[in-house]
Design goal:
The protein is elongated. It is an all-alpha fold and about 100 residues long. Helix 1 packs across helix 2 and helix 2 runs antiparallel to helix 3. The protein starts with a helix and ends with a helix. It is built from 4 helices and no strands.
Length: about 100
Amino acid sequence: MEYNLLIKAGFMGFAASTGAMCLVFLIAGNLLKINRRRFSSVYLLAGVVSFLIIYLLLHTKIMTTGIQAPQIFLTGVIGGWLASVLFGLTQFKRLLISFLKS
């Protein structure tokens, strides 16, 4: 099994998902002026947006580079996405809330 590919894909999924969540919260707070009481709604939206970004990333990466083991790559990226979602709810929540308006 290619552990190196699995770890790289996991980090890539985590970074892309965390970045997408921060971007959604920044847009929701600054452009849409959503307040902090709507955290769960914005977090659900951020989770969906981050999943769509991960899906597009997977699709383009697998199709353009022709990865030898796409199942391992898929497992790593989805694992990174899930880790990012849990990280956002536990450790990253205060920073995400700070992007929203009071």
